[in-house]
Amino acid sequence: MLPPPVYDIRKSYEDNYTFGPFFGGIIPKPIPPAGSLAFLGHKVASRIGIPAGPLLNARWIGFYARLGFDILTYKTVRSHFHPSYPNPNCLYVPYHKPFDLEDLTHPLIGTLAYTPASMHDVTITNSFGMPSQDPAIWMEDVKKANSLLGEKQILVVSVVGTPQDDIGIEGDFARTARLAKNAGAEFIEVNFSCPNVKGKEGQLYQDPESSGKVLSQIRESIGPDVRLIMKIGFLEDPGKIRNLVEKTGPYLNAISAINTVTGTIINPEGRPALPGSGRERSGLCGSAIKPLALKTIRGLKTEVASQKKDLTVIGVGGFNAIEDYTEFRQAGADFVMTATGAMWDPFLAYHLKQRNAPES
């Protein structure tokens, strides 16, 4: 039986933001870096990180930094306050084999009445709607988060644009990225993939032409020195991957894949599991999405090499246990990040470093 996650899925987003992480253990003495690696031109102690998701504020960043995660991504922020969807935001999805695309065409059960026996049993659905504090709050908090990092650790700030009448989604992406830069961000991730929002921003990566236009404005807004990462969802078709890399590559330093995949989530009685209109379908993450992530990473790595792009590939999606790390590296991920895995096993980076796996 696993201990409860440090992000308490029975509590609201607001409670986790204000009072989390919920951790009663002992943080071990850090394992000294065996050397250093270059992450987009900056030194880091390992290839292990956490993507946008569980790192809600500086307190969460500091907690996971002390546990040895070296590339930490501040949860996606907006140019304005945006509330979270109501609780529950996360449910277990008791599915005991890896997903294929056929599985995602059928409704899946979501429930809190489940106790996973191992990290390979942790697959969840999450539905937050990309909440954000007001910039006056998150910009000061980003500065604080940067101050909590240890040696050879870096902070990425994830941003999203919101369709606006005055400047459009492209302008709002650029505005939010500029706010992140003004808060001290040297690494910015643009979140082009979130299945839990209703606007165009949620699946922008599916439109390479629009993605390139947005990135062009962002790059113009933040200048050449800030490292820029694009977060995408699942892609299988080589032609679509080729087109996306071609249209977006000139503005980027890295691509992160994948975000959650989408499924229809019902409760054991067959009704929608998450309350509120428009939440019948939500993101799936954790162990079961790993083969979909690996497939996308292989395709990206092949296309980046084919086009001779100087782009780093960051692997995300289903890295729940120590043995998963090697699969991501073999698939072509230069760096590997875990969200669900880190929520249920905050010692994941520490145990990997004990085995010296991050340097492999």
The name CATH uses for the topology is TIM Barrel
Strand order of the largest sheet: 3-4-8-9-10-11-14-15
* Main sheet attributes: strand count, strand direction, barrel closure: 8 strands, parallel, barrel
Residue fraction in strands = 15-25%
Quick recap:
With 360 residues, the chain is α/β, with parallel strands linked by helices. It has helices at 13-19, 58-66, 135-147, 168-182, 208-222, 238-248, 290-306, 322-331, 340-344, 348-354; strands at 37-39, 42-44, 48-50, 71-77, 90-92, 108-109, 123-126, 154-159, 187-191, 227-232, 254-257, 261-266, 281-286, 312-316, 335-337. Helix 5 packs parallel to helix 6.
Can you describe this structure?
There is one protein chain. The chain has 360 residues and is α/β, with parallel strands linked by helices. The protein has one domain: TIM Barrel. It has helices at residues 13-19, 58-66, 135-147, 168-182, 208-222, 238-248, 290-306, 322-331, 340-344, 348-354; strands spanning 37-39, 42-44, 48-50, 71-77, 90-92, 108-109, 123-126, 154-159, 187-191, 227-232, 254-257, 261-266, 281-286, 312-316, 335-337. The chain has an eight-stranded parallel beta barrel, surrounded by five helices. It has a five-stranded mixed beta sheet with strand order 5-7-13-12-6, with no helix packed on it. Helix 8 (322-331) links the parallel strand 14 (312-316) and strand 15 (335-337). The longest helix has 17 residues, at 290-306.
Write a concise keyword list for the protein shown above.
5-stranded mixed β-sheet, alpha/beta, 10 helices, single chain, 360 residues, TIM Barrel, 8-stranded parallel β-barrel
